[in-house]
């Protein structure tokens, strides 16, 4: 009886040890798995942190480069603004405007028409001097040429043939629209001034017209207006000597 009781107790102790070992092994396995998962998660987190650190470093470097570029562009922009201001001041100071531009364009036109520059210089220098003109202006009249009239009395000259004046106009019409032979004084007229030697300048527009020209050491000033007789214009000319320096 005592032997059976001892065997039963020994069996219970063996079962208890096996269960304890099983529980210990089970929780040890769980701990090992947990530790392994922790280590894996820590390594993954460290890797992600390293990647993020690299990205932050790259972004910081790009931001610093962008700031440097912005600073460089600001310096260049200030430089360009200064250059623009310099050019604007030069433009305002050197480029002719208003009456000066009109005079400059007229000089350029005369040069394009092959007017000698020494003659232009002489005229400009003489502009502020008092001219010696003939006592009385000369007035002459002539017929304006049209597409229907190319006849006589369509030219006059001044200064004993130094300057010859002719004109062309647009044909007039009567109230019914019928074309007439004479020109229409209310429309554009082109007056030509031809020097002895062939050089020709023109004045064009609605009458009256004014024109001046230098021939040799003299200036001719012309005023053209409609004549009292139909088809005619009247030209009045002043002939003035350009004074010496």
Give the fraction of residues assigned to helices: 40-55%
| Secondary structure tally, helices | 3
If you average the pLDDT, what whole number results?
82
The N- and C-terminal alpha carbons lie at a distance of: 164 Å
Number of domain units: 3
Which ranges are low-confidence, i.e. pLDDT below 50, for 5 or more consecutive residues?
Answer: none
Proportion of beta-strand residues: 25-35%
**Secondary-structure element pattern, one letter each:** HHHEEEEEEEEEEE
For the sheet with most strands, the description reads: 5 strands, antiparallel
Identify the overall geometry.
Answer: rod-shaped
**SS elements, strand count:** 11
Taking Cα atoms only, what radius of gyration do you get, to the nearest Å? 54 Å
Structural class: alpha+beta
Describe the 3D structure.
There is one protein chain. This protein folds into three domains: 1-95; 100-128, no CATH class; 131-241. It is 48% helix and 27% strand. The protein is built from three helices and eleven strands. Strands 1, 2, 9, 10 and 11 form a five-stranded antiparallel beta sheet that branches. A four-stranded antiparallel beta sheet has the order 3-4-7-8, with no helix packed on it. A two-stranded antiparallel sheet has the order 5-6. A hairpin with a 5-residue loop joins strand 5 and strand 6 (179-183). The termini are far apart. The model has no long low-confidence stretch (mean pLDDT 82).
């Amino acid at each position: 009886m005592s032997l059976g009781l001892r065997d039963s107790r020994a069996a219970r102790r063996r079962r208890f040890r096996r269960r304890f070992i099983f529980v210990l092994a089970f929780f040890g396995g769980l701990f090992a798995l947990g530790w392994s998962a922790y280590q894996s998660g820590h390594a993954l987190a460290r890797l992600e942190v390293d990647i993020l650190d690299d990205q932050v470093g790259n972004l910081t470097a790009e931001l610093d480069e962008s700031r440097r570029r912005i600073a460089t562009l600001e310096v260049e922009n200030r430089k360009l603004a200064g250059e623009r201001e310099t050019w604007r001041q030069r433009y305002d100071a050197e480029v002719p405007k208003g009456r000066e531009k009109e005079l400059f364009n007229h000089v350029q036109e005369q040069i394009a028409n092959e007017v000698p520059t020494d003659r232009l210089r002489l005229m400009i220098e003489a502009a502020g001097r008092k001219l010696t003109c003939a006592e009385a202006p000369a007035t002459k009249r002539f017929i304006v040429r049209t597409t229907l009239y190319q006849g006589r009395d369509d030219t006059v000259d001044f200064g004993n043939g130094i300057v010859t004046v002719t004109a062309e106009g647009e044909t007039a019409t009567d109230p019914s629209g019928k074309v007439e032979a004479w020109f229409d004084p209310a429309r554009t007229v082109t007056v030509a001034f031809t020097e002895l030697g062939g050089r020709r300048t023109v004045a064009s527009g609605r009458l009256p017209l004014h024109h001046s020209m230098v021939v040799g050491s003299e200036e001719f000033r012309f005023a053209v207006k409609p004549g009292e007789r139909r088809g005619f214009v009247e030209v009045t000319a002043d002939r003035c000597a350009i004074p010496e320096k």
